[in-house]
Design goal:
Strand content: 5-15%
Radius of gyration: 17 Å
Structural class: mainly alpha
Distance between the termini: 39 Å
Number of helices: 2
Helix content: 40-55%
Length: 116
């Protein structure tokens, strides 16, 4: 829809200086060397497929409505989060500023020589 792209987003810097500032999230783990943006994009697709399969299984196997609803909501949130992160990983190679859920991802030299 025209005109909604900029108004639907938070203003730049609104989280700056807060504990939720994405530029200051602590690194929880050191990602292995194989965790480059291209591979993480592919793994995100696998994660989305697994989440959808688990969603179908949960809807069929779980009997209690509340538990079923909680599991479905959690799996949908996981799939949406993975899709969002996958999209960001596709754009970040050019800027050399990649992260996956707040964890810094190193861009290999062969993907962008300027990132060395």
């Amino acid at each position: 829809m025209p005109g909604t792209s900029s108004s639907d987003r938070l203003p730049v810097g609104i989280l700056e200086g807060t504990p939720l500032d994405p530029d200051h999230l602590p690194a929880l783990v050191d990602l292995p060397a194989w965790a480059n943006p291209e591979r993480l994009r592919s793994l995100a697709v696998v994660g989305i497929v697994v989440a959808v399969v688990l969603l179908v299984l949960a809807a069929r196997l779980l009997r209690r409505l509340v538990v079923r609803a909680l599991v479905v909501v959690a799996l949908v949130a996981l799939a949406i989060g993975l899709w969002d992160q996958r999209a960001e990983l596709g754009d970040c190679v050019a800027t050399c500023d990649c992260s996956l859920f707040g964890q810094v991802v190193e861009v290999p030299f062969d993907l962008n020589p300027r990132c060395a």
